[in-house]
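User: Hey, my collaborator sent me this sequence without any context and asked if I could get a structure. I don't really work with proteins. Can you help?
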Amino acid sequence: MFLRKILDVKIKNNQISVTRDANISVIDLENQIRSHPYTGQNLDKSEETEKSKVPPFIQVFYFLFFKNLTVPSEKEFCETYISWLGGAVDGKITYEGTELKADFLINRMKRTYPSLIRDLHFLYLIEEARVFDDVEYSMHMDYFKGLDLKVTNKGKIYFVSLFIDTPRGQYYKKRKMFRHDYSEIIEIELNVDFASLKKVGNIFLLKKEHVGLLVDRINS
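Assistant: No problem. I've predicted the 3D structure and written it out in structure-token form, which is a compact way to encode the shape of the chain:
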């Protein structure tokens, strides 16, 4: 069954890419999300671990989604990432000469997990709404440019920066603005009030109304 969903494999300039059918309904995604427990609230932090430069969590999240075409569980997400780093020894992870406590690194991952799910769910929400000419997500653009989505509306391209209007969300948005130059693109800031989200299982997600909000921001 897996091979039937592989649409194309391309090798160009010493790079390989695989195109896979990822046609999933929003309802199916929400049912998957609903089935996953989330334990990331009020966990201990280590300043050293929070500031450490480790490989992006997002790579593991989207690799697992690509591989299984399902939203990875919190446990699968964390365990896969730790294994990619070589595993924990005596409760510690060593990466490029830096030693970190595995528990603190996992806690940091768990705090990131809901936002990864929220972005993926919103992408499919927009796709299903059929309000734009084209919708595109790029992990590279997300991680390295701080831009969550690329949408084409009436032939014009917009890049969407989605963030939840909480102190944490505002903090990370300011960091993105400091690191990146958006002067040559049209950036749409989509700041969303946390109270407007809906709870699915233990994860807070965006709704159809937020797609309408994005349309309004673009049209204005």
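In plain terms: The mean pLDDT is 91. You can pass these tokens on to your collaborator as they are.
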